[in-house]
Each structure stands twice: as structure tokens, then as C-alpha cells.
């Protein structure tokens, strides 16, 4: 693949509204900001579109890098443009970043900055810098290119064009994974979406860094002590992988790189995750929860990644369901159970229906009757309603409830399809 844009060629973004970039330049000039550049996925994807004439690459966000104050540029845009063109303006003063929409286009403004990691995996210390130095903090060479608005020319200090042509993912430096291990998940995302492969030097960095495990936290330690890149940032990348990317390809790549060791040794050796996630898609179960339930220690991993409490509770209850039926499987008594008996056992345990669905995704020897209950048996009601029984002389109370249950049991066991 040949990328037909050089560093001296004028660059265009036909997908953006006409005059949007010109309006941003005018606002920057009035705010005394001398250098604004487009960075991120829009630059990368436009290069790929130019090369392949393909609509596969379609970044919709406009990421702008500002030498100076991003907040100052946002205020200038708000003052200069018709208010009807601007929406969703959110200024994050602590990081001097801004989110907004202009003409419906999502725009992120960020002040150019250097990042210094005092400890591997922790949040970095940041200081303002010039545009070229900011590009060195990026994740991959293909994302470390920029287009200066003043000249509309490509800035490519790390040879991202060459990596695009080779369809390769290269980390920017030898400590990229050590500084932020969540970049491994990001590599899996890009590899699946763009159909790129991880360059040999970057793959070696993944494996050697995971083998050294340079982070102060280790699996088995208190989950609350895990650094952000092994906790919240890792969860965020996993959510993007599972809900925005071709997850089967991404996770397959991740496992082949031994990258699932970031999560749990059990998941790295897990051969059943495809089945779990396919069933989770079918049963509308949260994909990340379904992935984690196959871990060596699902509860601890869910805590470390700071999953919402509801999802953690589902994992715990699913493990309880698995344990209950594992004991049952030893006697094989369940082989003679009727649909009504299965329904009774499941419903009297008062298990959350989502936890039962998660147990179905997990598999095991008794997943089929669990699935029959979830998909059919739980939906079957008494053929006669309480109102009809009362009209026939039944008195509301315990005996009425018992009769409704009896009628439902008869209907469950009479319905051959329910088996």
C-alpha cells in the first residue's frame, strides 16, 4: 500500500464541514494562539482513505492540539461563531482540555503537553510543550502524526506513514508498555479494526514487559492498590474493545500476544471465552462481565477493574449458581427432574435472572436446563388467572397462591416443548 501524501503536500479533509478549519484558525489568531494542529485518528484515517479509496476508515471526531491554552481557544470560538453552531461545550480546567461540537462535529481541544511517568502504570505528570514534543507521548507511530492548520501539511516525526504502508503497529518508545500497559489493549483494538499487525519489536516489548512485570502491584495484592493503567484505564480500554470493535479478532490477537496476562492467568489460558461472549451477545449479557467470569479469580478481577457494583454482584451470584449445580452434577439426580422441578429449584433460590444468564454463558454440565428455564419455563404462567379463580369462588390468600402454582406446574410438565 502506498500512502500518497508527503510531508510537503497540502492535506485536505473532505469529510469536515466547509470552512470549519478556517473558522478555527481565525479564532486561534484572535486568541493569540500561533499553532493549532489536527492529530489522532482523523489524520491516520484520511491517509488510509487517500491510499485505498475506502470508506472503512471513518473517524468522526476532530482532535485539535493547541500550543497554548485549549480553554482560551474554546472561549474564542464561542465568542466568534454563531451560537447555533456550538453545542455540548465542556471545559476541563484541571487538564486544560475542552470537549465541544461545532456544526455537529465532535471536537476535542487539548493543550500540547509532555508526560512523565514517575512510576510505571501510574498517572503521569504533565507540563506544557510544543507540538512536536507532544507527539512523542502518543501510543503508536500511526497516531503520532499531525496536520498544522496554518500550512495544512503533514508532521510525521516518527515515520507513521511508513507504518501505515506496512500495516504495522509500532509503540513509540521502549517503555511504552511499562508506562501504560493499557496500550496493549489499545493495540488489540486497532489491530482488529484496521486489520494491522503488531510489529515484531512491539510484540517483543509486550511479552518482555509482561514477563518482567515492572509494576509495583501484583495479582494477589489488594485490588485497591492497583495503578490506574492496571485498573480504571484498563477497564475503559476493554469496554471500548468489546463494545466498539470486532471483539473476537481483537481478543484473539490479545491472547496470541499473551496480553491477557494483564487481566488474569486463567483468562490467558482460557479456551472458552468465544463461547461465553457469543452467548452473552445472544442473551444481552454485558460482554465484559461475561469475559471476566472465566477468570481464575473473577471476583478479585472485577474489583480491580472497578466494575459497577451491580456487575460485581452478578459475577458473585453466578459463581454461587455454578457451585450449587456442580454439587448437584455429582449425584446425577437432576437427570430425572421435570421442568416444574427445575423451575422450583431456580425460583426458590431467588437468583437474579441476569446471573442465571451469565451462568448459561459460562457453560458447564447443566447449562441446557438453565437455558430452558431462562428462555421458556420462567415465562409460562398458570392457564387460569387469580381473577378467574376468585370468580369461581376461591378466596384470596395462601391457598389461592398454592392453586396457581399447582396449575402452573401442570402446564410446565404437560408442555412437551418445554423440554
Descriptive account of the structure:
Residues 1-6 have low confidence and may be disordered. The protein starts with 19 loop residues before the first helix and ends in a 5-residue tail after the last helix. It has helices spanning 20-30, 41-52, 70-80, 131-134, 160-166, 176-179, 182-194, 200-212, 232-244, 247-256, 265-268, 273-283, 287-292, 298-304, 309-331, 339-348, 353-362, 367-375, 386-391, 398-414, and strands at 35-39, 62-67, 86-92, 97-102, 105-111, 113-116, 125-128, 146-148, 153-155, 168-169, 197-198. It has 419 residues and is α+β, with helices and mostly antiparallel strands. Among the domains are: 1-166, Beta Polymerase, domain 2; 325-418, no CATH class. The longest helix is centred in the last third of the chain and has 23 residues, at 309-331.
How is the secondary structure organized here?
Layout: H1 20-30, E1 35-39, H2 41-52, E2 62-67, H3 70-80, E3 86-92, E4 97-102, E5 105-111, E6 113-116, E7 125-128, H4 131-134, E8 146-148, E9 153-155, H5 160-166, E10 168-169, H6 176-179, H7 182-194, E11 197-198, H8 200-212, H9 232-244, H10 247-256, H11 265-268, H12 273-283, H13 287-292, H14 298-304, H15 309-331, H16 339-348, H17 353-362, H18 367-375, H19 386-391, H20 398-414
Parallel strand pairs: 2-5, 10-11
Antiparallel strand pairs: 1-2, 1-8, 3-4, 4-5, 6-7, 8-9
Order of strands side by side in the largest beta sheet? 3-4-5-2-1-8-9
| Shape label | elongated
Summing up helix and strand content along with how strands pair, one would put the structural category as alpha+beta
Largest sheet: number of strands, sense, barrel closure? 7 strands, mixed
Helix content: 40-55%
Report Rg: 28 Å
* CATH secondary-structure class of the domain at 1-166: Alpha Beta
Strand content: 5-15%
SS element count, helices: 20
CATH superfamily heading of the domain at 1-166: Beta Polymerase, domain 2
Low-confidence stretches: 1-6
* CATH architecture descriptor name of the domain at 1-166: 2-Layer Sandwich
Amino acid at each position: 500500500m502506498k500512502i500518497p501524501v508527503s510531508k510537503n503536500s497540502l492535506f485536505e479533509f473532505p469529510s469536515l464541514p466547509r470552512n470549519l478549519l478556517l473558522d478555527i484558525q481565525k479564532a486561534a489568531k484572535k486568541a493569540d494562539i500561533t499553532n493549532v494542529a489536527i492529530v489522532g485518528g482523523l489524520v491516520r484515517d484520511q491517509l488510509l482513505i487517500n491510499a485505498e479509496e475506502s470508506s472503512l476508515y471513518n473517524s468522526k471526531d476532530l482532535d485539535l492540539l493547541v500550543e497554548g491554552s485549549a480553554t482560551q481557544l474554546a472561549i474564542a470560538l464561542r465568542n466568534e461563531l454563531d451560537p447555533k453552531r456550538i453545542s455540548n461545550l465542556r471545559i476541563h480546567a484541571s487538564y486544560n482540555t475542552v470537549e465541544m461540537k461545532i456544526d455537529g462535529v465532535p471536537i476535542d481541544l487539548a493543550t500540547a503537553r509532555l508526560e512523565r511517568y514517575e512510576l510505571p502504570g501510574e498517572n503521569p505528570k504533565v507540563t506544557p510543550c510544543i507540538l512536536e514534543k507532544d507527539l512523542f507521548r502518543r501510543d503508536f507511530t500511526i497516531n503520532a502524526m499531525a496536520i498544522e492548520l496554518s500550512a495544512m501539511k503533514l508532521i510525521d516525526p516518527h515515520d507513521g506513514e511508513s507504518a501505515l504502508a506496512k500495516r504495522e503497529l509500532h509503540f513509540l518508545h521502549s517503555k511504552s508498555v511499562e508506562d501504560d500497559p493499557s496500550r496493549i489493549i489499545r493495540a488489540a483494538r486497532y489491530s482488529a479494526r484496521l486489520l494491522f499487525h503488531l510489529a515484531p519489536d512491539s510484540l517483543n516489548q509486550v511479552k518482555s514487559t509482561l514477563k518482567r512485570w515492572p509494576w509495583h502491584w501484583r495479582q494477589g495484592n489488594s485490588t485497591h492498590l492497583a495503578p490506574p493503567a492496571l485498573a480504571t484505564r484498563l477497564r475503559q480500554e476493554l469496554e471500548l474493545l468489546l463494545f466498539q470493535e470486532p471483539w473476537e479478532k481483537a481478543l484473539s490477537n490479545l491472547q496470541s500476544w499473551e496480553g491477557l496476562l494483564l487481566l488474569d492467568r486463567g483468562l490467558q489460558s482460557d479456551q472458552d471465552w468465544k463461547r461465553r461472549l457469543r452467548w452473552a451477545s445472544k442473551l444481552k449479557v454485558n460482554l465484559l462481565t461475561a469475559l471476566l467470569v472465566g477468570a481464575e479469580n473473577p471476583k478479585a478481577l472485577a474489583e480491580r477493574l472497578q466494575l459497577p457494583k451491580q456487575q460485581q454482584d452478578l459475577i458473585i451470584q453466578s459463581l454461587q449458581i455454578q457451585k450449587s449445580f456442580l454439587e448437584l452434577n455429582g449425584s446425577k439426580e437432576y437427570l430425572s427432574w421435570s421442568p416444574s422441578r427445575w423451575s422450583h429449584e431456580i425460583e426458590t433460590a431467588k437468583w437474579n435472572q441476569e446471573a442465571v444468564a451469565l451462568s448459561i454463558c459460562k457453560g458447564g454440565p447443566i447449562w441446557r436446563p438453565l437455558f430452558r428455564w431462562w428462555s421458556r419455563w420462567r415465562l409460562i404462567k398458570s392457564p387460569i388467572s387469580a381473577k378467574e379463580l376468585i370468580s369461581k369462588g376461591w378466596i384470596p390468600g395462601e391457598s389461592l397462591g398454592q392453586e396457581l402454582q399447582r396449575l402452573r406446574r401442570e402446564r410446565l410438565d404437560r408442555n412437551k416443548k418445554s423440554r
